[in-house]
Amino acid sequence: MSDIPIEITHDQHAVRRQKLADMRAGGFDPFRAHFATTHFSNDAIKSQVDGQDNTVVVAVAGRLVIIRDMGKSQFVKILDQQGQIQLYVKKDVVGDDAYAAFKKLDIGDIIGAKGTLFKTKTGEVTVRVESSTLVAKALRPLPEKWHGLSDPETIYRQRYLDVIINAESRARLMLRSRLVSHIRRFLEERSFLEVETPVLESTAGGAAARPFVTHHNALDVDFFLRIATELRLKRMLVGGFDRVFEIGRIFRNEGVSRRHNPEFTMLEVYQAYSDYRGMMTLIRDLLISLIREVVRPADGSLKIKHAASGVDIDFGGEWREVRYKDLIREATGDGDWFTRSKAEKIAGAEKLGLGVNPSWEEFEITNEIFSKKIEPTLIQPTFVTHLPKELCPLAKITLDDPTTIDVFELTIGGMEVAPAYSEQNDPDVQRAMFEAQAGEEKHTIDHDFLLALEHGMPPAGGMGVGIDRLCILLTGAESIRDVILFPQLRPGS
Length: 493
Hints:
The chain is of the alpha+beta class and about 500 residues long. It folds into two domains: about 10-135, CATH 2.40.50.140; about 165-320 and about 380-485, Bira Bifunctional Protein, Domain 2 (BirA Bifunctional Protein, domain 2), CATH 3.30.930.10. The protein is about 30% helix and about 25% strand.
């Protein structure tokens, strides 16, 4: 036994501690090492055949969440990975001692049970328990279902309780897992290879973001937690891996909001001999597949409800394609916006009610208008194309407009879901764009990536998909924290 003192926080905790002590004194260890199950709950329910009660034998296990004591029998429900299943425990069947022990169980205890399936008079598939055992004693009670877990901080900090109590949260997070699994299958069926690239990088590249810094003791070198996987994956294109993807954690030491978390999951996918238009086809097919085969709207359509506005987003309809410059001209009411002076652009942004930092570059002023006044209005799937070249140094410059790049940002539900590029594969142009972005901080340039490009990289389309944002969209979550199992929080008191 541990010598660490145990804090008894309330009466129920004390009662359960006493039950544990009594069990141990009687020679019973309630923390078992093993219980052999044959079925999860839903699988057991589906295996019941109408008119054939007490013929299918199952062994199930889970957490007690409902107890209805009827004297010499009990109806209880347990919760496992798939959901709930009802158990019927009768004194005459299990015996006096076993029934007496069963009646001492508490909500939250984890039990295993064996028996046969039958349907009750109300039609509910139930296990007629022949034997059961306590496999893990819950020493602390679960929160009261309706009022016990309402504080958002507690929900995120004690997610394990949230997914027991909150069926909606549980379903949302399980849907996330199925979405990610389906994305993998979808890409693998199209000959994409999943690869893994380093989380620790000597140069933080592939995006414009503030990195987290850590120290590698053995090498005595500072490393950055990666802010993107792009430059590593494009090295694989150089190496002859023509279709690659990675679903990995990305770290950006920046702000927290409903749509931003410093640690998040990103899908990056690269396809040789394609371009940004090839990525349009890929992302449209992927999202339609996710909705049809994973989300599965009840009406059989390809529509989902946009949580914030209540508007139906129709993935089966036409996906709008519009140039970034045209959206800016429309929002500002100024057809000559891109020939205006910086002072005129500041005045135009302020006229729209936006605060502008005078030190910003002109493209930053323009992009503030896009992000604050345009993007939130794009609810239906919209490909915003040909963004200013300053926003990304890794894309091909548009042939008919050298101020823009061949890219799109797929915006749905008022937020960017997936940017994609025709990837820059000219090493000299890439070097010049890196140097322009780096300014005086030339040490931030990934020279090894430029060396790789000099060996020849095929033309390619590349795309990033924010998995967390995608899950917000497809699950109707209010915040990115609702789709992350364990979001970062300040240490608890």
